Amino acid sequence: MTKKTRGKLWGIGIAVFLLIALLVFLFVWFFGARYPVFDGAAESLAEIPALHEDFVPQGVCALPEGSGYDYAVSGYMKKGASRVYFVGKDGAKYIRVSEGGNDLTAHFGGVAATENYLILTVGKSLVRVPLSDALSAKEGTALPYHDKLATETSNAFVSVSGNTLFAGEFYRKGNYETDKSHHVTVDGIENRALVACYTIDDGAEGGVTDKTPFAYLSVRGLVQGLAIEGEDLYLSCSWGLADSTLCRYKDPLGGETDLTVTVGGKSVPCYFLGKAESEKKVPCMSEGIAVKEGKLVVLFESGSYKYRQFVRRRTEELVALPLDFFA
């Protein structure tokens, strides 16, 4: 056997080895995604609507008692107007939201509800739609938003807890950067995203008592949703096909802080969320979260047609987790 022939055989052998290694990796990656603790605790609440129509769900919130529906789910379409679905035991319906007669096509990354308004994220703004109008509208109706609140954050999620409104941004190095004024380092840990905290006033313009946040939360990257129950604060973190992470912290609001951030030329108190008290791995593509009846409700986008052909695991229903899941 010549030296040249041996070289070719070595090359072929290495190529075959690398191909087998790649196939093994892909098999383990796609078919080895198992979550026994999550599966044992998770309760299916309702089918996520319109996944077969190219709806990509992003945000979820619980609706006030007596609304006729249990949840609102916001998201965008592959083409056309974004939607907000109202989901209940008897089915679902959707509305669109318009500005100047034109349908909004934003991601609708987050949705929240007060007693009187539905709140949606639209880039660096929050828009409000009267909740009674939205609930009584016929399927597919386009409703003009009532008013808009401009924010310093490019909002990926929004949440309501008590009389506080939270609007937060998503950070990922390289493609979802944030302003340097949003970067905070404590004890060697650097967070690069902020959540603005406002006091709710449904009767005021923009729905808040002051258009400058009374505080910011400094949070980790990849946050897709936030929810609060009692003294605990929860974050949903995900990106792409990797496992998602649900995190629990102590809610810092109301406590003391020596930190401030200067955002938009205004100095505001800041609360830093460092190491989580509990972190749990769950299936990929977790998005918005909410709390209802003492359980954490989790929305996933993995069942949408946009991703379902290559996603590791599809989750096509709203899922509830007992809070002792984080013990």
Label this structure with key terms:
globular; mainly beta; 44% strand; 3 helices; six-stranded mixed beta sheet; 327 residues; Tachylectin-2, Chain A
Description of the structure:
This protein is mainly beta. The chain has a single domain (47-326), classed as 5 Propeller (Tachylectin-2, Chain A). Helix content is 13%, strand content 44%. It contains three helices and 26 strands. Strands 2, 3, 4, 5, 6 and 10 form a six-stranded mixed beta sheet that branches. A six-stranded mixed beta sheet has the order 12-13-16-17-22-21, with no helix packed on it. A hairpin with a 3-residue loop joins strand 7 (111-113) and strand 8. Residues 20-28 have low confidence and may be disordered.
Class by helix and strand content? Answer: mainly beta
Helix content class: 10-25%
What's the SSE pattern? HHEEEEEEEEEHEEEEEEEEEEEEEEEEE
CATH top level is Mainly Beta
Query: What is the domain total for the residues?
Result: 1
Level-2 CATH architecture: 5 Propeller
First CA to last CA: what distance?
64 Å
Largest sheet data: 6 strands, mixed
